[in-house]
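Researcher: Before we compare anything, I want clean individual predictions. No alignment, no superposition, just each chain on its own. First chain goes here; please echo the sequence and then give the structure tokens.
Model: Echoing the first chain and its structure:
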Amino acid sequence: MLQKWIYHQTYPFAWIRLDHSDNELVSFIPHLRACMGSTGLFPTALPLQDECPTWEDCLTATLNAAIDVPQDFFLILDDFHNITSPDIHRALGWMLDYIPEQMHLLITSRQPFPLPVPRLRMRRQVLEIVLG
């Protein structure tokens, strides 16, 4: 259903289909950054992974580059139920606090995930679609 919807949108998107091999922070963040960088949307080049001493530095550089993207775009994290790493959950929760306005995160999962959804719901920054 998401695939049908996204292909009818006019906004560009980066799509990551997650599996168990993405369940480590050291592989998840480079995968995320490579996918976003491959869209060709970023006028500012993403720094190399070696230039980021911590995950916060990597995500900060990525979000700073996303601020310069001149249009709305989607980042799709598909099959997020495969991610059980508390470090990735923490990093993604942190990212949600600083996500630029034009960047829209779509997450698909077959089970609830430990992200700050209630807080985002209170701020009216989340739309949840639950299928039966």
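Researcher: Okay. Second chain, same rules.
Model: Second chain and its structure:
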Amino acid sequence: MKKYSYLLFIVVALMFSACSKKDKKSQNTQETKQEQQAKATNKQTNTITLKSVDGKDIVITKTEKGFKFSDSKDKIVLVSFFATWCPPCKAEIPHLNNLQEKYKDKLKIIGILIESGKSSDEVKRFINSFAINYTIANSPANMDFADAVGGVKNIPFMLMYDKKGDYVTHYLGAIPEEMIDSDIQQALKR
């Protein structure tokens, strides 16, 4: 019985922990001059343009109190920084799927992949294997956005913004679905 209790403790501890980016080194990729110029232009205008796996642009504009997302007018936005190799990131996917389904017209979840060098085909296979029903961004600008929010050192890391783009809250590690759901309900009242 003690072995079972000890094993249960370890499993629960892993579920509520976060992965460190140091767990797996990302591949360095050389930026083209066009990408460097685009970054310089974006920093001047306080915008970052991410590319979703399905090819759509997600234009993010810095505001005084948070960020506005071009394709999320009048919706709460939940941004989830993740990696495909991170066990707690994988564990939160069913909860994010449930929340996206529950709040279809009121919530936009955007998964921000923080692994460089992953092809869209690899990411699409990951999306299909977990039946992800929310937007996933896979672009070089993902790390620019991670820097813009203050840096992402551990994952999963989520940020919530209200309909106006104002910061609501953040989460580090695997978080119970009910807690996120409660925060979404509070943000809808704003």
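Researcher: What stands out in the second chain?
Model: DSSP finds six helices and ten strands in the chain. Additionally, Residues 50-188 form a domain with the Glutaredoxin fold (CATH 3.40.30.10).
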